[in-house]
Design a protein that fits this description.
This protein is mainly β. It has five domains: 100 residues, Immunoglobulins (Immunoglobulin-like), CATH 2.60.40; 87 residues, Immunoglobulins (Immunoglobulin-like); 82 residues, Sandwich (Immunoglobulin-like), CATH 2.60.40.10; 85 residues, Immunoglobulin-like; 84 residues, Immunoglobulins (Immunoglobulin-like, Sandwich). The chain is 0% helix and 55% strand. It has no helices and 46 strands. Strands 1, 2, 4, 5, 6, 9 and 10 form a seven-stranded mixed β-sheet that branches. Strands 14, 15, 18, 19 and 20 form a five-stranded antiparallel β-sheet that branches. A hairpin with a 3-residue loop joins strand 9 and strand 10. It is rod-shaped. The N terminus is likely disordered.
Length: 478
């Protein structure tokens, strides 16, 4: 009987996925140490087999020659022959069972086949060791080494759920068991695991968390409340923040303050504390520091005691007068109003550059009115009022009454003039004073002697100005 043998080419690493050579189903079988394997033929039971021979690396394992079979020493109790199909089961596998298996079967016709068996030690104890627990961004490199018992091991690295692949900074050496990342960044940190496989088993290490220290950066200083100006006596909280791992330590910088920590509260601040404030963030792992941009705190007092004062108590038309707007505290601006409307200076009215002095050169009677000055800073505003009375006159003096009158009738003459304050009046007949302190002259019963030149003199005691008007009256006989 001719024995036919053929060599099978490797197809896949798991049983049952490709055809074996000749009468055998599989051309390659993988099995673990201590496990079992079945070499399956393509023959469909029942088959009448008259002769069968199984060999391992060309050495006989079992021979069947109807009606007897012979098992090679060392295989007793480890093999079972299925004579209905010629298949063979091999148990209690060891690494020494790896090799080439072949079968020759004689039934209605001759069948031969061959396959390969690979025995692997199952993996266990997958562990990671690391060389660099403390990592500083841009300054450090780290190496992770994966180890496992077992045979024919393949290594894969995971960061979270993503597989780690080689790049300019990432190196995989030692068959993938060593992972090295140089010049680490914060984006390299994470939870690393090593996944190990061989054809008969797989396993994953416990996770190793690597943290990369970085910063501080983006150091900033915030004020609460946020104001352009703070009132004297108020409280201000300063908070310093930075992007840093581990969290940064903070130191406050400035001549007017001291302390550490991310928050500083200034209580009952005063104007002497006006100035720039900043903080410095420090990372005690990276040994780096960064100082914030300065924040300017301006402290102001409230304005109080507003007043408007004049350079004279008696303003007279034609003279010059200054109204001065004053207050205690820091003044930022002033706003003048007259009679409830915003003041628009005219040609003979000026404001100095600070708006504190309103000048009239010269005064006009139309300048009389209610003046108010609002004094402002960002904290508050106050207002002061002043009534400006422009004294003028007397002017437009006139006498009303008859120029002719019958004797024995009543003569009434009235004198009037524009004047502030009101003028006082004196009456003369020809050159003789006949009445004072009255605007009206009355003669109940006239005589011819009442004819003549009537003069009314008006006097303003403030302006110290006097004017006169003359009326000629003639008496007629009834």
């Amino acid at each position: 009987m001719n024995l036919l043998f053929s060599l099978c080419v490797l197809c896949v690493t798991f049983r049952g996925l490709c055809e074996g050579a000749g009468v055998l189903v599989d051309d390659l079988l993988n099995a673990p140490v201590g496990g079992k394997v079945i070499f399956t033929t393509t023959l469909t039971p029942p088959v009448t087999i008259t002769f069968l021979l199984w060999t391992f690396n060309h050495d006989n394992i079992i021979t069947f020659n109807e009606p007897m079979n012979t098992t090679t020493p060392g295989y007793e109790g480890r093999i079972t022959l299925f004579i209905s199909s010629g298949s063979l089961e091999l148990r209690n596998l060891s690494l020494n069972d790896s090799g080439d298996y072949a079968v020759t079967i004689s039934a209605t016709k001759a069948h031969t086949g061959s396959t390969k068996l690979r025995i692997y030690e199952p993996l266990s104890n997958v562990t990671i060791t690391t060389s660099s627990p403390d990592l500083v961004e841009f300054n450090s490199s780290f190496r992770l080494s994966c180890s496992s018992s077992g045979s024919s091991l393949s290594f894969y690295w995971l960061n979270g759920s993503s597989e780690v692949t080689a790049s300019d900074r990432v190196q995989l050496t030692g068959g993938g068991s060593n992972l090295t990342i140089s010049n680490v960044t914060r984006y390299d940190q994470g939870t690393f695991r090593c996944h190990v496989v061989n054809p008969v088993s797989n396993g994953t290490s416990d996770p190793v968390h690597l943290s990369v220290s970085f910063g501080p950066e983006n150091t900033s200083l915030n004020l609460s409340p946020t104001e352009h100006y703070y009132e004297d006596g108020s409280n201000v909280s300063l908070t310093c923040s930075a992007v840093s791992r581990p969290p940064a330590h903070f130191q406050w910088i400035g001549d007017k303050l001291s302390g550490s920590g991310p928050k500083l509260t200034l209580l009952n601040i005063n104007m002497n504390q006006t100035g720039n404030y900043s903080c410095q963030a420090f990372n005690n792992i990276t040994m780096r520091n960064q100082t914030s941009q300065p924040a300017f705190i301006s402290v102001l007092k409230r304005i109080s005691g507003a007043s408007v004062k004049s350079t004279t108590n008696q303003a007279v038309e034609g003279n010059s007068v200054n109204l001065t707007c004053e207050a205690a505290g820091p003044v930022f601006s002033r706003q003048w109003m007259k009679d409830g409307s915003y003041l628009i200076p005219t040609d003979n009215m000026t404001l100095n550059s600070e708006g504190s002095v309103l000048s009239f050169q010269p005064l006009k009677k139309t300048h009389s009115g209610e003046y108010s000055c609002r004094i402002m800073n960002p904290i508050n505003s106050v207002e002061a009022d002043y009534t400006l009375v422009v004294n003028y006159g007397p002017e437009s003096l006139q006498i009303t009454g008859p120029r002719e009158i019958n004797v024995k009738h009543t003569l009434t003459l009235t004198c009037s003039a524009d004047s502030t304050p009101s003028a006082t009046y004196t009456w003369l007949l020809n050159t003789r004073e006949i009445l004072s302190n009255s605007a009206v002259f009355t003669k109940d019963v006239t005589e011819f002697s009442d004819s003549g030149s009537y003069t009314c003199t008006a006097t303003n005691y403030v302006t110290r100005r006097t004017t006169a008007h003359v009326l000629f009256v003639t008496g007629n006989e009834m």
